[in-house]
Amino acid sequence: MGLNPNFLWGGATAANQTEGGYDLGNRGLANVDLLPTGKDRAGVSAGKIKMLEFDDQHFYPAKEAIDMYHHYFEDIKLFAEMGFKTYRMSISWSRIFPNGDDEQPNEEGLRFYENVFLELRKYNIEPLVTLTHFDVPVNLIKKYGSWRNRKMIDFYEQYCRTAFNRYKGLVKYWLTFNEVNMILHAPFIGAGLCFEPDENEEQVKYQAMHHQLVASAIATKIAHEVDPENKIGCMLAGGNNYPYSCRPEDYAKAIEKDRENYLFIDIQSRGAYPNYAFKKFARENIQIEMKQGDQEILKQYTVDFISFSYYSSRVVATDSSVTNETAGNIYKSIKNPYLESSEWGWQIDPLGLRSALNVLYDRYQKPLFIVENGLGAVDTPDENGYVEDDYRIDYLREHIKAFKAAAEEDGVELMGYTTWGCIDLVSAGSGEMSKRYGFIYVDRDDEGKGTLKRSKKKSFYWYQKVIESNGEDLG
């Protein structure tokens, strides 16, 4: 049986977590550059602490990250050695339009990514490109209030049109917005939103969501016009909510919490706001301002495939005495007593990935793509930078078994799998380097010190075998 012979194996990163060079090549400042390490990171991410410039009280790890800006030749060569069929990466909006509202794009930024794509093509690695991996040019936040403002649709359209035209023939797989539902949980990261004290935050978030969804549909339209070969996907922060008990109230709550996240994909994949959303807006007095033609655009230009991140499942309870919480991808969950946890408290649930794939495929009947999955862990390298990361291999092996079962036994249409942080990078949640995901160790610590030297971990050679055997040899 086995996976499709054209299955896209690879790894995933984001520009702001790897690239560095924040002030090189005429790049402008982005919201994601301004996420500091330490106690204020969560407040900035949530839009509660307004930080639109650097200060000397904080450390900003994205400024340099792992300096892929200067190391991409070396890094791509390592990806090729592992046998990557695809590499999921993002392009920085502010590298191409430094202010976001510039009349002309920045040629230096365009050329940089063109060179990256040419290098990938040299090794027959298919780029899978996220247009917006949490990036918003800071100028657009200061001048327009970011995605709360409808003008953002025009700026995004110009950015997408520029990218699709410039990279025609080099890139055919695109994602419009990374973890589009993250706007509800980390609105500054997800949409560059900062809140004023008297603002109705839910109203602002859902209005900004509407603007992003219209922008995504317009991007899909342009992509297909520029090159009919283009395939456009949406991207969800995935993982289902389990009821804490078999109390009917817990099950109902799990459905409700899942819908919060499905709302975005329901619109991007099915082309319309679902009835449950309109009921929620009426109940909570949220008034989405829609322009004439918005609903037609959403209906006409739905995505070609659905991509998602999966790190863990979540648990919800209606009993207020159940308070045992655990960490997760940006937001917390009730702790599941049946699961082990990572060093950062993220619960490990491979079967949950198979379940998530089945639920998504049943719901949308469109091809699926797992574009993030991995284990953040502390690695201890030897004097050569080699890491015996059997814990990472174990985690990935079990998740690969789970998605293979979904494809081979359940009939889920699965395009590919890109592990998160295939090379060590700055953690989006915590800003730490010590929370490592990669097959490749990067010599850099949480304070930004280190040589940036790259070295192969044990998992590098393991994943090489996995790809070579198309997932048959999980050794």
TrEMBL record:
It comes from the Bacteria. SUPFAM superfamilies: (Trans)glycosidases. GO terms for molecular function: beta-glucosidase activity. Keywords: Glycosidase, Hydrolase. It holds the Pfam family Glyco_hydro_1. Gene3D superfamilies: Glycosidases. Coiled coil: none annotated. GO terms for biological process: carbohydrate catabolic process. InterPro entries: GH, GH_1_N_CS, Glyco_hydro_1, Glyco_hydro_1_AS. One of its GO terms (cellular component) is cytosol. The keyword Transmembrane does not apply. The active site is at E372. The keyword Kinase does not apply. Belongs to the glycosyl hydrolase 1 family. This is Amygdalase.
